[in-house]
Amino acid sequence: MQLKQLLGAAAITLASAAFAQAPTPKIIAIASFGEHPALNQVAEGFKARMTQLGYVEGRQVTYDFMHANFDRSLVPQILQRAEAKKPDLIFAITTPLNQAAVRGIKDKSIPIVFGSVVDPVVAGLVPDWQHGSAWSSGATILQDFEASLAFVKQVVPTVKRVGTLYNPGEDNDKTNIDLYNKAARKVGLEVVAVPVDNANDIPQRAQSFAGKVDAIYQIQSNIVQTSIPVVAQVARRNRIPLFNSVYSEQLKHQLAGFHAVSYTKNGEHAADIANRILKGEKPANIAPYVPKASDFDALISPQGLQAVGLSVPSTLANSPWILK
């Protein structure tokens, strides 16, 4: 055999061996309760961080994204589809979807990492704040309401009563309202919390704040966040400054401001936990991630304040919080 042929054969052999040794890409199923800018940011942040950690899509990892369109009746189908893929890990977004996954995923060898969950202990996802469960841990969006309401007071110094809408049937909202009330007492504010469990009722419930509150700081509530433009319209009509716990680029000048957990960072922190699990660490040994100060964005909209007859206080005129 000629030298050129020998070299060619050797190259083919080496290439074949390398191909044979190439690891099979990890399969990660991403299951979300629905498509919403904030929830999409969680998924995007997760994937971007996984890339930074060395999981290149199409090479070291493949993703299968699915969502239930905020329809609880579709959640079991979504989870069955996820489990049928026999993934190495499921990344589940929102509390309702994670609660259903804990009950619905039969193969307990598939670890579940959660994102966009306020209180995983109350939700029954983990036993306590120091540990994951046998198959689940993740990153929370636990709000620092004392900091958020103090921010509202800085922007609207005359505020005495603050309102929010919440869903009494969702564990996230129950936890948020409890924390909201405790924080309000600490910063000297009265809370007007209005329950809503049907999106069609949101305009009427938001209207009930008229004459009863000086500002609205809206909690992270799935049912309400999908209708924030509606809440913003009602708040403007009644000259009530509206602050949100979820940032929206599209609505940045329709609201008075935001004190919000970064949903992108939530996905990034969930990816860090997923990486630890994929490398062999047991979920039970991984404490749920709790947001730090650096995970929050404080933002003020001069246009949003002007629309309800207010302006940025002189003490904040040069603040880095001002939206352009």
From TrEMBL:
It comes from the Bacteria. Pfam families: ABC_sub_bind (PF04392). This is ABC transport system substrate-binding protein. InterPro entries: ABC_transpt-TYRBP-like (IPR007487), Peripla_BP_I (IPR028082). PANTHER family: ABC TRANSPORTER, SUBSTRATE-BINDING LIPOPROTEIN, ABC TRANSPORTER, SUBSTRATE-BINDING LIPOPROTEIN-RELATED. Residues 1-20 form the signal peptide. Keywords: Signal.
